[in-house]
Every structure is written in C-alpha cells, then in structure tokens.
Amino acid sequence: MYCRDPVLLAPPSRLINRLRHVAQASLLASVLLFVAVAATLSIFPSAARMPATVGYLLVSLTGVFGIAWLALVIAFQNGIVKCPCCGGCFARRQVGIPWLWFPSRCDECGYDVSTGHREGDF
Ligand SMILES: [Zn+2]
Questions:
Q1: Where are the domains of the chain?
Q2: Cβ(70)–Cβ(100) under 8 Å?
Q3: Considering 13, 39, 45, 94, which has the largest number of Cβ atoms within 10 A of its Cβ?
Q4: How far is residue 94's CA from residue 115's CA, in Å, rounded to a whole number?
C-alpha cells in the first residue's frame, strides 16, 4: 500500500535526500583529500617531513569520510533506508557506476524524494 499524503512524505523524503547528499559528498571529500595528499607528496617530497599531527589529521579525515560513505552505501543497499512511499528498499540497484551515485528515485515504486512525486501520480 502506497502512502500518497505529501505532508506525511515530506520529512522522511528530506532525510533520505540529505543522506544521499552526505554519502555523495563524503565520497568526493575522501577521494579529493587522498588525491591532494598524494599529489602534494609527489610534487613536494619534502612535505613528507611535515609535522606528524598534520599527516595524522589528513589520514583521519580521509578515513572518516570513507567510513561515512561506506556506512551509507551499506544502509542503502541492505534496505535499512526505506522508501517513505512504499516501505521497500529505497536504492538496492544504484544507477551508473555502482556505489558512486545514489538515485533520488525509489527502485520499487518510482517515488522521487527530490520532487516528492511518484511516477504515474498527478
Ligand atoms: Zn518506494
């Protein structure tokens, strides 16, 4: 049974939309930090002698963003994040490159958390 009340659908839709954005931003931040550190060390080898706390901070940030992304991937793919409209697994199949993009549309019923509409509804 589908829930079609926009008032009831709005808060969980916003939450899922934020989770999608956090997952995509944390992956991007993790990759960018890793590339920035690797490029800095290859261009300026003397940077390897930077204070250890700076290195630990960069590695820790990369790890924190990576763990946040991985936790959200697991939550989306294992049905922990449920569709507010149909109650099914929201994003079991991910569009495009697997694990890199979280769709805004439910796999089961087609409800879009960005627009708040479902395919076929007016
Ligand atoms: Zn759904």
A1: 6-118
A2: no
A3: 13
A4: 19
Distance in Å, CA 77 to ligand 1 centroid: 14
Contact predicate 5/112, CB 8 Å = no
- Give the tens place of pLDDT for each residue, 30-67: 889 889 888 888 888 887 777 777 778 888 888 899 89
| pTM of the complete model | 0.78
- CA distances for 83 relative to 3, 14, 32, 70, 107, angstroms: 10, 12, 31, 20, 9
> Residue 67: its pLDDT value, please?
92
Region of 115 on the Ramachandran plot (φ > 0 left; ψ -120 to 50 alpha; else beta):
alpha
CA of 86 to the centre of ligand 1 (A): 4
